[in-house]
Structure formats: structure tokens, C-alpha cells
Design brief:
Blueprint (H helix, E strand, L loop, with lengths): L2 H23 L15 E7 L6 H11 L5 E7 L15 H13 L9 E4 L3 E4 L3 H10 L9 E3 L3 E4 L9 E16 L9 E17 L4 E4 L9 E7 L6 E6 L1
């Protein structure tokens, strides 16, 4: 590695050294998580603009999107596109993620609007009282591995091993409020405001408990924010999250 390369990686290398030192000292020495960078609750909403039951759930998740302890992510699925309106943010990869959650949770199928909290708790997203209860009862992300990131890479520090290798995801989402006029289908004529719409879900690799560095090769599309999720298996409980 050249001197110029060392300089370019210096911030991430410094973070790696700090994370490794903390991990070697034991879990009690992991740096204190700040609510801004390291949310305690990851809220995944699976919805479709073509589903008449989804607008209340979208509004519920929009209402908690600014909470510093919450990372709210809106995933647009594609299986309701046949109802006459193709979701403008839909992606088959998001439909596949929801279906894998159903398999992991032993559920017979998928539905909208569904909210999944920390990869553990599944509820009907349109019921605000149920959402608030899930946010209060789901175990918070307090014992997972520390994460450091910059534009070129991510380091997940050493931590307790899981029964299966964990998956490290890069999620890129639009933090703005996006208003969509629905032209047809069950919500035809309505305008729906979306928050934190996921545009990319990228699998960076696996983590087995040892400090591991992952390269981030894709350029960040303009206007998007990002987050790293460390998840038991592919769709088990989320172990740690970090905004980047």
C-alpha cells in the first residue's frame, strides 16, 4: 500500500484500531452508542402504493422517522403492481426480503402493510397503538458489534459469534419526504407522502464474530443517506445498525 493510500484510509484504520481495542477489552468497553449514528430500533415497513390499506401505515412510520433512536426504512414491494398501479419505488429485491422474513418467522405468506422491528417483531403497520407497543417491547440494539464506516469501507468489530454467519447489509434510502400522486388502482387519485424510501439494498458480505472490513465500491447516488445493518443469518434478528 502506498503512502497516499495509507493516508486515504487513515480515518477507517484509526476506527478499526479503536474498535479492535475495545473488543479486546470486553463488551463492556465498546464505545457508548450515540442515538444519532447508532439507532436502537430498526423499523422496516413493507408497503405498496397499490394497496388501499397501506396509507395509514405509511403515515405511522413517517411520524417516527425523525426519532433519533429509530431507523425507519420504507420498502416498496411489487406483488400488488397487478392491481393497476406499479409502485414507483418497487423492487423485486425488497419483495424477496419480505418473503425471506416470512420463511424465517414461520409465517405462511406475506402481507401489506407489514412492519418488522429489529428483524424480530412483526405487526400490522396501520395500527399505531400496535406499532408503539412493538417499539416499547422489542429488545433494543445494545449488545451487537460496533461499526465504523467511511466512503470506501465498513468495519464490523469483533463480537459474540452467532449460530450462523451474520449478513452485513448496506441500505441506501432517500431521507426526504417524497409525494407521489397515484394515478390508478386502489389508491387512484390520492397523493401519498413517503419518508426514508429504500432505493438500494446491498449485501456486503458475512461476519462471523471476528473484526472484518468490507469494501464499498458503488458510488452513493446523490441525495441518498445510508445505513449498515448486521443481521443474524440473512433475515434473523438485527444485531447492530449504524447510520453512515
Amino acid at each position: 500500500m502506498t503512502l497516499a493510500q495509507l493516508r486515504s484510509h487513515a480515518p477507517l484504520l484509526a476506527a478499526a484500531i479503536a474498535l479492535t481495542a475495545c473488543s479486546a477489552a470486553g463488551s463492556s468497553s465498546v464505545p457508548t452508542r450515540t442515538s444519532d449514528a447508532k439507532p436502537a430500533l430498526v423499523v422496516e415497513l413493507y408497503q405498496s402504493q397499490g394497496c388501499s390499506s397501506c396509507p395509514p401505515a405509511i403515515a405511522n412510520v413517517n411520524a417516527i422517522a425523525d426519532r433519533p433512536d429509530v431507523l425507519a426504512l420504507t420498502f416498496a414491494v411489487t406483488y400488488w403492481d397487478r392491481l393497476g398501479w406499479k409502485d414507483t419505488f418497487g423492487d423485486p429485491a425488497f419483495t424477496d426480503r419480505q418473503r425471506r422474513y416470512a420463511v424465517a418467522g414461520g409465517r405462511p405468506g406475506v402481507f401489506t402493510p407489514q412492519v418488522i422491528v429489529n428483524g424480530r417483531t412483526s405487526i400490522v403497520g396501520g395500527r399505531r397503538a400496535e406499532l408503539d407497543a412493538a417499539l416499547g417491547s422489542t429488545p433494543r440494539l445494545t449488545g451487537g458489534p460496533a461499526i465504523a464506516a467511511n466512503g470506501s469501507g465498513v468495519i464490523v468489530a469483533a463480537g459474540p459469534r452467532t449460530a450462523t454467519p451474520a449478513t452485513v447489509w448496506l441500505v441506501r434510502y432517500d431521507p426526504r419526504t417524497l409525494r407521489v400522486a397515484i394515478g390508478r388502482g386502489e389508491n387512484g387519485g390520492r397523493k401519498i407522502d413517503h419518508r426514508n424510501v429504500v432505493r438500494q439494498l446491498i449485501r456486503l458480505g458475512s461476519w462471523n464474530g471476528s473484526a472484518t472490513r468490507f469494501s464499498v465500491e458503488r458510488a452513493v447516488p446523490k441525495g441518498l443517506a445510508g445505513a449498515i445493518l448486521v443481521q443474524d443469518g440473512a433475515n434473523g434478528p438485527i444485531l447492530a445498525a449504524h447510520r453512515v
